[in-house]
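Notes from the 1:1 (GR / supervisor)

We went over the backlog. Supervisor wanted to see one worked example end to end before approving the batch request, so GR pasted a single chain during the call. The sequence is below; no edits were made to it. Supervisor asked that the structure be written out right there so they could see what the output format looks like.
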Amino acid sequence: MSNPSKKAKIASTSGGPFAKKPREMLVWILEFFSMYEVARLQRLVCREFRDAGQERIHERGGRKLYEEGIAYFNGLDYKTIDKTRGLLLLQASRDAGCKTALTAKRFNAPNLSDEDKQQILKDLKEIGTSSPYHWADFYIGYWYRRGFGGEEKRCQAVQWLERAVHNGSTYAMFNLGCYYNNGELGVTQSATKANELFALAAEKGYAQARYNLGNNLYHGMGVEIDFNRCVELWEQSAKQGHVDSQFNLSCIYRDGSEDNQNGNPMTIPKNHPLHFKWALAAAKQKDVQSMNDTGVAYCRGSGVEQNYESAFEWYKKAAEEEHKWAQCNVGVFYEKGRGCDIDLVKAMFWYQKSAAQEFQPAIQAVGRLS
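Structure output shown during the call:
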């Protein structure tokens, strides 16, 4: 049989913050109230706990939506960049009442007054005090970085970013790395320190940090040149949809990598199919140079089957974005009927647009057709 006295002893205390001594004090205090007042107080306390709990649940849920939105928008946490999805999640986080998301949005309001700026800082610090959150720390740093506290206080941004880094903020790691890379906000320029921070953010799956670290490895900034590691990082970032990484990969696979200063052998050989793959990926994200490069690949059959119609399509897209080489190429295609019908009027039109940008082959073509 169970021990009744043991059961009674367990029932007499709730443990945790209301362990034996605090509970005795509470019982003593309640002796000064009538039973009616005690019951009313109990209902009030329960209601307050319930409301506070619900608010905390909504805030936590809103924070989760906010983090997911930021991750998809910027390519954090190994996410593939999807700005549309990111914006929808960010809006959902605001709808859920996420205080950080609501406050962050106010940064972009036009014509912020000094009163608005001070209120934003006050709200961010309240969030950081009542419910610590590394995004609040980051945005306080961003607040100072914008010069909202005056130029003399901009360097305080570094302190808040360091705090956010300590609390695990990938975004703060990257931004602080940029400040060290460029010697901004009063920090001593140090590519080595920047690379350390970029590496931390890259390990946590931030596409832009992977790109920056790869770029420093390519140029030997604060680290020995390492083309293979550079390409590895760019490929990771490119697979997340980072357009600059896709473009750089297309270039390195088109030309190969070579250290001409000390005679090291080429470590990344030319690879035309991979050049085309990444040029096309960047072109689809409206990178103008990649649009033209994709057209060149189709025109020459480099890394892909030759296709004049596809080449013309990509040249035309780049030409419409004022790329002078592409404009001249469109003129050539109209003049020779490659991938389109011969049309000398349209050929002249595109030659002239390219010539207006002082592109010599186009200038010569205009003279020839005049």
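Supervisor's comment: The chain has 19 helices and two strands.
Batch request approved.
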